[in-house]
Structures are given as structure tokens and as C-alpha cells.
Amino acid sequence: MSQFGALARFLFMTLWAWRSLPRAGRRVVRRIFINQVWFTAIQAIPLIAMLAGILSFLVISQAARELGRIGATELIGTLMVVVIVRELGPLLTALAIVGRSGTAIAAELATNRVMGEIDALEGMGIDPIHYLVLPRFLAAIVSVFGLLIVFDLAAVLAGLAGAVISGMTSARYLSVVLATLTVSDVGLTIAKGLVFGIVIGIVPSFHGLRSGTAATEVPIAAAHAVIVSIVAIFVLSAVFVMVG
Amino acid sequence: MAETVLLIERVAVGGPESPRVTLEIAAHTTVSVVGEDHTGIGNLGRVAIGLKPPGDGRVTVMGTDLATLSRSELLAYRRLVGYLPAGDGLLQNLTLHQNVALPLRFGSNFSESQIASRLNIMLAATRLTGAEQLRPAQASEEQRRRAALARALAFDPDLVVLEDVFVGLTDRAARDVLETARGGDLPQGSRRTVLTIGPVLPSSVIQRFDLRYRMTRQGLQPED
Fold first, then answer.
1. Is A31 within a domain?
2. Could you confirm whether domain B4-92+158-222 is CATH 3.40.50.300?
3. Minimal Cα–Cα distance from A224 to chain B, Å?
4. Cα–Cα 20 to 30 A to A177, which of A3, A129, A194, B26?
5. CA-CA distance, A31 to B177, in Å (whole number)?
6. Which range marks the domain in which residue A101 is found?
7. What average pLDDT score do residues A120-133 get?
8. Is A233 helix (H, G, I), strand (E, B) or coil?
């Protein structure tokens, strides 16, 4: 519980940091933010598109074949929207980003601590929350959002390929998918993107900055960051299911 | 009587059980504190710039009690004091040039051209011209130390706190680094007030210090 409280305080400090960021520092933060988006989102597009494509192709091609036998191909829309777009899309995207960027953020910040760079930043009058955490936090939110869109587009297109290969027409596939998609599905996906982005933006930074000054603390910080992030994402997914 | 720039009063730098340390540093003086790790000397610089709380002691810098400052005021205050931490504290993902530029880019309203001209002066003063595009891992220990010093002097502070600044340097480089930190001589002493903290003082620089102290388990003792 004490760790949860510390994490909540850290999130609050990060949100508050935007207000206290010096005007001159905004330019530096913007540049780090762009670098982080490049690393977290742009470089991860092939991975996310591949994950979404393979998952969607396998699920839809199998389902189209089986559901076609009983004349229930309209359920393809439910399968695509509810299972893939609304549930698995945000979950898999978040997990991929945690594995790829969350580990990197935690390890980088823990290394900053080990190398004395955090104290050096403080000594220069630069708040580490401003310089290290804020741009990574904002970049994580933007990246999860962007990659969710990539995931959903890739999933719908791969699902189309799977459906067509299994004998369904593309017009039928698109009509059942679009007929199932509601505003609340889009809203829920956006909400998940925001919440998972906050988790990925804050948990690895928290564990990275909290690490000790021994080099052996770096992998420990990275491991804690990944474990806590994954657990938080699954728990929050369950909360979304209950609320939604 | 010269103005007191830094006053550390009754601070147990080695932990609650360690002896209380009192250190007063007057403007335009160059002061060293040497000692071994177990004496808590590693915390002295951090206490002086407000990175470590002084416990029930007190730290006053240029007339301001650091305990009375809010976090944002403390950050602003640190821009007025040059600090070179032990291990140099250079950011490994930045070049030496970017490291020196960072405090100026983050903490000043200078334009890019003003920053560039200030950087050129700092890099020339610390003899880093030509090496500025190296990353810390590619640079020699001396180059890293010079870059960390240039970064500490970026705002041309009146007080400079240097930790382990002579470790691994040749006598000549140590002398050169100290002279750069002092910023030249004035009739009343050095232009800047300098506090160096570390395990040893090279013989080549001893004469340049106005006061020298040794930290022991018993506390801070003046040296001859």
C-alpha cells in the first residue's frame, strides 16, 4: 500500500511538473519528447502491426470458416470489435510497449541514478521530473494512443484478408464489422489508451528513479517496472470490463 | 572582514552518530576539505548545495538559510552555485558540448546564439575545443572532468563546490582545472569562492589554497 501511495504521489508530482516547468526548459523537454515518441511509437509500428495482423488473421480466418458452417457470420463483427479491437488491442499494445519501452525507461533512469546523473541534474537546478520523467510520460500516452490506432487498422485489414480467404466477401465482412462498432467501443478504446499510457509513462520512471546507486539495482528496477506495469494493465483491463 | 559565502553549522555529515561539522567559507577564498570515505566527506558537497538535508544543523549560502527555501526556490538557488559532483555526473547520452549547454538551455532565457557564444567561451576556457562532440564514454577522464567543470561554471557562479575534482588528473591538469574554477585573481583573492572536497590534494595545487581542512572521525581539523 505504501508503494501504491508513493506511486500516486509520483504521478501527482509529474502532472504538477508541467505547471512549474521553466519556460526555457520547454524546448528541451519538447526535444526529448519527440525522441521518445520516435523510439516508443514510430520504431514499434512494425511490431504492433505484425502482432495485430497475425492475431486478427488467425482468429478471423478460423472463425469465418466455423461460423460460416452454422450461418452465423454476423458474429465476425462482434468478434472483431469486442474481442480484438476493444479488449485484446489495448491489452497487447500496452504489453508490447511495456516490454519494449517500459524496460528501457526504467533501465535508463536507474542507470542515471547509478551514474550520479540525477544528483548532477539537481545540482544544476534541473528537476529530474522535468527533464527525465515529464517527456517520457507524455510520450508514453501519445505513443499508446498512436499504436492503438495502428493495431486496430492492422487488425481490421488482416481480418479482412482472413475472412476473404475463408470464403467471406469483403463487403459482407466490412458491413458486419462496421455494424457492430459503436461510439462506446471507440470511447472505451480511447479511455484504455489514455489509462494504459499513464501506467506505462509513470511506473517505469518511478521504479527507475527509486533505484539505489549500485549497478546491480538496474536490472532489479527494470524487472519491478515490468511486473508492476503488467499487473496494473491486467487489473485495469478487468476494471474496464466491469465498468464497461 | 570578508563576507561569508557558505556557512555549514553543526551538521552531522557522516550520519546522526558522527561529529558535528562547522565550516565557514569567506568570499574570494579557495578552501579544501580532504578525508577518507568513512568520515562522511562524500556528503559534505551535497549538504552545501542542499541536495542532502542538514538534519538539525544549518546551511547558509550567501545569507540564505537553505532550509527556508521551497523546492523551486532551491532549484533556482542551485543555478547560482557551480557544482561538480563526484564521478562528474555527465549525462552519458549527450555529447560533452550538449552536457555543458544543458543548464543554459534549461535554466536561462538566453537565445541559441547567446548560448552558443557562452559555450564557445566555456569550452575554450576549459580547453575542450575539438573534443566537444565526444560522448562521456569516448572522452578521457581529464576531458570529462573539464566538461563537468565547464558545466558547473555555465552561469559564472560566485561559489563553486567541486567533489573529487583532482582524482585521476596529472599535476598540470589539476593546477589548470583549479585555476579555471577560481576564475582568476582579484586583489582580495580569487574571483570565485571555491570549495574542493576529496580524498587527496595534489602537491601542485596546495599553495593555491587559502585554507585546508582534514575530515576525520573526530570532525573537521584545520591543516597547516
1. no
2. yes
3. 24
4. A194
5. 32
6. 2-14+41-243
7. 94
8. helix
Q: Is A100 a domain residue?
A: yes
Q: Which residue has the cell 489495448?
A: A90
Cell numbers given for A80:
472483431
The chain B residue lying nearest A24, using CA atoms, is B106
> How does pLDDT run across B164-209, given as a tens digit for each residue?
999 999 999 999 999 999 998 888 778 899 999 999 899 999 999 9
Partner B contacted by A115 (CB < 8 A): yes
Q: Do B89 and A20 touch (CB under 8 A)?
A: no
- One-letter amino acid for residue B17 of the chain: E
Please count the structural domains in chain A.
1
Q: Residue A19 falls within a domain, yes or no?
A: no
Closest CA to B77 of B55, B48, B101: B48
Contact assessment for residue B126 and residue B151, using Cβ atoms and an 8 Å cutoff: no
Q: Is residue A35 part of a domain?
A: no
Distance from CA of A85 to the nearest CA of B (A): 37
- Interface predicted TM-score of the whole assembly (ipTM), two decimals: 0.89
Name the residue in chain B with its Cα closest to that of A118: B89
**Which of chain A's residues have a Cβ under 8 Å away from the Cβ of B105?**
24-25, 27-28
Instruction: Walk along chain B (224 residues) in steps of 10 and give the mean pLDDT of each run.
Output: 87 84 94 90 92 91 91 88 93 94 90 91 90 94 95 93 94 93 84 93 91 90 84
